[in-house]
Amino acid sequence: MVQAFVYYVYIMSNTGLTTIYIGVANNLERRVLQHKLGKGSKFTKKYKVNRLIYFEELEDVNIAITREKQLKNWHRDWKWNLIKSVNPDLKDLSEGWYDEETLKQVQGVVLKQVQGDNK
């Protein structure tokens, strides 16, 4: 029996929705948590990108990578139109994914980031 794989092309943003990040992952929950903890990438840590606002599921990693590159080359308005077509309220789609202890860790990271901004 052949095991089916799922890959995700996802878009994350910061709280103010001024910065977006597009990525690809094979475990979306884990990858989003890494971003929320400031461990996802240097870019997402620097710009405090921690809200999942869009994702697509794909069965082929090459198609997922191609789609990621395609979206990265789109104009900003096209990206926002795509996001709003499935998430018109721009909610954090990962809301409810993590337990209380994990959320406390995330809140601690966010609090440190905010305190760092106020220095």
Structure report:
- This protein is an alpha+beta fold and 119 residues long.
- The chain contains five helices and three strands; from the N terminus they run ββααβααα.
- The protein has a single domain (7-117), classed as GIY-YIG endonuclease.
- A hairpin with a 6-residue loop joins strand 1 (7-13) and strand 2 (20-25).
- The radius of gyration is 15 Å and the shape is globular.
- The N and C termini lie far apart (57 Å).
> The CATH topology is what?
GIY-YIG endonuclease
The portion of residues assigned to helices is 40-55%
Going by CATH, what is the homologous superfamily? Answer: GIY-YIG endonuclease
What is the CA-CA span between the terminal residues?
A: 57 Å
Oligomer: single chain
SSE string, helix = H, strand = E?
EEHHEHHH
Query: Order of strands across the widest beta sheet?
Result: 2-1-3
State the helix count: 5
Main sheet record: 3 strands, antiparallel
Give the strand content: 15-25%
Name of the top-level CATH class: Alpha Beta
Low-confidence stretches: none
**Average pLDDT level:** 88
Which CATH-level-2 architecture? 3-Layer(aba) Sandwich
Shape: globular
CA radius of gyration: 15 Å
Question: Which structural category do the helix and sheet elements fall into?
Answer: alpha+beta
Number of domains: 1
**How many strand elements?**
3
